[in-house]
Design goal:
single chain, alpha/beta, five-stranded mixed beta sheet, two-stranded parallel sheet, 9 helices, globular
């Protein structure tokens, strides 16, 4: 599966495209939707499964001038008004380093690159009328259905967290073909 194939999975899903259009309408700078929004759709497509229901829609954006968490709450309220029933989770990555105990992030993609698994460090956005994809650590693990800690989680505590996520989220129950390299 190539990057174009992954984009095709997103573009062929009317629900995903509605979410992307609603997110674009929020006017957030440097916004991307990532994690399970992309990963789950790709793993479902590879596994021949229907699209998993959304647990959350992770909208990451970067705006150093709007670090107040109330700004995220306002954006979520706008998103719910535009597309009710979607479990929106909108976070300004310009402040998330504080919660994560890390150095300040320089952009949305810098923050996404530090998410737990390489196959989770993927995101899509709408630019120029089309879907754009980023895979911060490449696509091999995503399309190979490999769960591996991202570089930020490639330590003892990080591997424990990745294993916990696999178990709590029931990934092996949903996608029996996953290969754990934790």
């Amino acid at each position: 599966m190539s990057a174009q194939d992954v984009v095709g999975v997103i573009e062929s899903d009317p629900g995903a495209m509605r979410v992307l259009r609603a997110a674009a309408g929020l006017g957030l700078p440097d916004w991307w939707i990532g994690a399970g929004f992309v990963r789950n759709r790709v793993w479902d497509a590879i596994s021949g499964l229907p699209v998993s229901p959304e647990r959350d829609v992770d909208v990451a954006y970067f705006d150093p001038a709007r670090r107040d968490p109330r700004e995220d709450a306002r954006a979520e309220a706008q998103a719910v008004a535009a597309l009710p029933g979607v479990p929106w989770e909108i976070r300004n990555q310009a402040r998330m380093h504080l919660r994560n105990g890390e150095r300040p992030y320089t952009s949305t993609l810098d923050a996404i690159s530090r998410w737990p698994e390489t196959a989770t460090c993927v995101a899509v956005t709408l630019r120029g009328g089309g879907v754009r994809l980023v895979a911060c650590h490449g696509l091999a693990d995503l399309v190979g259905m490999v769960v591996r800690p991202s570089p930020a989680f490639d330590n003892a505590a990080g591997r424990v967290e990745v294993q916990r996520r696999v178990e709590v989220k029931g990934w092996l129950d949903r996608w029996a073909g996953l290969r754990l390299e934790i």
